[in-house]
Amino acid sequence: MEKEFKSGFVTIIGRTNVGKSTLINLLVGEKVAAIANKVQTTRTAIKGIVNRENSQIIFTDTPGIHKPKHKLNEAMVETSFTMIPESDIILFLIEATSKEIGKGDQIILDKIKESGRKAILIINKIDLVKRDKLLNLIDIYRKEYKFETVIPISAYQEKYKDIILDEIEKHLKPGPAYYDIEEYTDQTLRQLAEETIREKALKLLQDEVPHGIYIEVEKMSLRKNKQNEELYDIEATIYCLRDSHKGIIIGKNGEMLKKIGQSARLDMEHNFGTKINLKTWVKVKKDWLDNDSIVNKFKLK
Questions:
Q1: What pTM, to 2 d.p., does this model score?
Q2: Which of 48, 72, 85, 228 could cross-link 28 (Cys pair, CB 3.0–4.6 Å)?
Q3: Residue 67 burial (CB count, 10 A)
Q4: Residue 153, class by beta-carbon neighbours within 10 Å (0-12 exposed, 13-18 middle, 19+ buried)?
């Protein structure tokens, strides 16, 4: 007898820098979210789609929960909390190195309690702690909420992928495939290009610069080159907050900007399956973090 097809929406939520983007990329098997060892890497809700034999799971990677300092930060936190009651299942991601429920995790936990949604606790970075500390942390959280299960993982290891997906599938209800089975994200190629450029900037730039930047693809067009291969012409602007930041992003003789561009181009060629001709510029746009027209782009639509 053929199994009934299931589907559902799963939100990944947690504090900043706990590994949410790494986890969604692992589960989807494609890079749909920017990864960098910096806080606030994800700025908006990014969907990743997993198509299995008997199910379709739509994941949403949300911005990390943090104390807002600008309108952009407020929009990010609002997006994360809005997704909780909209979810069929919540993946609550915490760090194994936690000794107790911290302030940020408690806020998230309270929102999950308020929603009453099914939730799976994912404890990341288990390679950094001993077994007794991990068991103690599991006990603390189990007393706070009736999680469907607790899964300790290291988000960089492939072996945890099917463990998590199998557990999620168990809790899904019968339903249709909401997206084409060939799709793995609802982001447009333009959005993926912007995410890729920003990821490379996050990895290569100094700490004080990355979260003061945003990327806007001004032009993206497909054509055939002389070898009759498909090629995307992409023109993108990196906006920053200060003239001093502009100098850092460009670098001596344009070397830093060249590194960002080359690294982003190689990633995009791999992900898009086409040649990329990427041109980047850097412009200063002061106080964009509090600019409503820009911040609205990051709000949940």
A1: 0.65
A2: 48
A3: 10
A4: buried
3-state secondary structure 128-161: HCCHHHHHHHHHHHHCCCCCCEEEECCCCCHHHH
* Whether 45 contacts 83, CB under 8 Å: yes
Give CA–CA dist 89/17, Å, rounded: 21
> Could you tell me the residue ranges of all domains in the chain?
6-174, 189-298
Q: Give the length of the chain.
A: 301
- pLDDT band at residue 60 using 50, 70 and 90 as cut-offs: confident
Q: 123-164 pLDDT, tens per residue?
A: 999 999 999 999 999 999 999 999 999 999 987 788 999 999
CATH of domain 6-174: 3.40.50.300
User: pLDDT digits over 181-234, tens only?
Assistant: 777 776 778 888 888 898 888 888 866 565 678 888 889 888 888 888 889 999
